[in-house]
Amino acid sequence: MEYQEKTAVYTNSENCIKRAGEFFLLPYNPKVPSLAGILYLAAFDGHADIFVCGADEYGPGNYPTDKVIKATEQVFACFKNTQFHFVLDNAKALPDQWRKFKNVKLMEHGRFVSYCDL
Questions:
Q1: For residue 115, what pLDDT is reported?
Q2: Helix (H) or strand (E) holding 106
Q3: pTM
Q4: Which of 41, 99, 106, 112 lies at 20 to 30 Å from 75 by C-alpha?
Q5: Phi then psi for 8, rounded to 5 degrees?
Q6: Is the dihedral of CA 63, 65, 70, 76 positive or negative?
Q7: Within its chain, how far is the Cα of 98 from the centroid?
């Protein structure tokens, strides 16, 4: 089975035309920061549990910008029935603004690995 047949990769219309059959068209072409876009796509596809790994690597101070925080908050608010599990070894890397959402959870990397092994 080819990678494209078992994996959904979203992109813009230009890339869909260039490489027909390899990508899915990004729905509604949102102009949002990459983290919010990734979470939106996963939730839009109907995933009930989304595990977010590597989202604590933002740069100076390992903290996202206001634009990222606000755009991502909108995803959490729109997809209230989706659980977003942030896999972080440093709990402080999760912005305080996201902690207020009941569908946002923290998970340590070791626990995530054990969860995947089950």
A1: 81
A2: strand 104-107
A3: 0.72
A4: 112
A5: -100, 115
A6: negative
A7: 13
> Tell me, what's the pLDDT at 62?
56
- Give the span between the Cα atoms of 99 and 67, in whole angstroms: 17
Structural tokens at position 44: 């839009």
Matching residue, tokens 């909108």 = 74
| Domain coordinates in residue numbering, the chain | 47-117
Instruction: Classify 8 as helix, strand or coil.
Output: coil
Strands 49-53 and 83-87: parallel
Residues with Cβ within 8 Å of 27's Cβ and at least 6 positions away in sequence, in order, are 10, 41, 44
**Full pLDDT tens readout for the chain, 118 residues:** 665 566 677 777 777 888 888 887 776 666 777 788 889 888 988 999 999 887 766 544 556 788 889 999 999 999 999 999 999 887 778 888 999 999 999 998 888 888 877 5
The residues pairing with 106 across neighbouring beta strands, listed in sequence order, are: 86
Q: Tell me the β-bridge partners of 107.
A: 87
- Report in angstroms the alpha-carbon separations of 92 from 5, 15, 70, 75, 87: 38, 37, 18, 21, 12
41: its two tokens? 């796509």
